[in-house]
Amino acid sequence: MTDPHTAITDLVEEGEQLDRLVAGLDEPGWRRSTPAPGWMVAHQIAHLTSVFRMAATAAAEPTRFEAMRAGLSGDFDADVAASMAPLLDEPPAALLARWRAARDEAATALAAVPAGRTVPWLVRPLPPSILACAGLMETFGHGQDIADALDARLERTDRIMHVAGFATLVREFGYHARGLTPPETAFRYELRTPSGARWDVGPEDAGNRVSGPAEDFCLLVTRRRHRADLALTATGTEADRFLDVAQAYRGPAGPGRTPGQFRSRSQDRAGSA
User: What digits encode the pLDDT tens for the residues 124-171?
Assistant: First the structure.
C-alpha cells in the first residue's frame, strides 16, 4: 500500500486536475455522452459530488451518515440514481460549485479524524486514509470517462498508486459482483509507476502474479479499459482469471468496455514516444 499520510492530499490534487478539465465546458459540453451508457459528463460529476458528500458526512457526522445508510433501498443502481437526481436538475455552474464544495468538505473532514479512529462506510468502517483512496479510485474512473468523452488525456502521476493499492485490498469485489468465490491464494503485483519506479506488493514466491504499467492496472480495476487493450501480464491461472473480473468498487460490474473501443495503451505510448 502507498503512504496513507499522502492519500488525502493526493485526493485533493487529483480532484483539482479533473476540475481544470470541466471548468471551461459550456452547457453542451456538460451534456456530452461518456462511455458509461446513459451517462453524460454531468452525471459523472453529479456522482462524484454525491460520493464526496457521503464521505464528508461519514467523517464529520457519523450518526447522520448511519441514518443515511439505513435509508438506502439496497438496490445499488437505484440508490446511485437517486443520489444524483437532485444534482442533475442544477445548471452546470451550480453543479460545478457543489462538486467543489463537496470535495473541500470531504478533504477537511477526513483530515480532522483523530489518529487511530475509523470512519463508518457502506459495508464496514475504514481508516480515513483508505476512504480517501476509495475517493481517488472514484475520481480516477469517472475522470477517465470524462476525458474519453472530451477526447482529452489526464496527466497520470504516482498519485494513482493509491488506486492500485486500494484495488489489491479489495480484490474480492470483482468476484463477489459475479457470484464467484474469491481465491484464497496470495497474489504478487509488480507494477511500474508513472514516474518509472517499481511498485511490488505480495509474496516474492507467489505463483500468481500481475505485472505491467500501473496506469493500465488502474484502468483495468476501474473497468475503463478491456484487458485486451492493456499491457498487463498474468502469471498463474488465478491471476489470469483476475484480469477478467477485476474491479475496485462494490456493486454490479456493469458492461465495462469492449476490446478495441479505444486506442490501446501501447498505441498511446508509441504515439507519445
Answer: 899 999 999 999 999 999 999 999 999 999 999 999 999 999 999 999
DSSP 89: T
What is the side-by-side strand order in the sheet with 198-201?
198-201, 187-192, 208-213, 233-235
Say what the pLDDT of residue 263 is: 73
For the domain made up of 4-155, give the CATH fold. Answer: Four Helix Bundle (Hemerythrin (Met), subunit A) (1.20.120)
Q: Does domain 161-272 have CATH number 3.40.50?
A: no
Q: How many residues does the chain have?
A: 273
CATH 3.30.1050 domain span(s) along the chain: 161-272
What are the residue ranges of CATH 1.20.120.450 in the chain? 4-155
56 grid coordinates:
464528508
Distance CA 49, CA 269 (A): 32
HSE on the CB side for 224, CA within 13 Å?
23
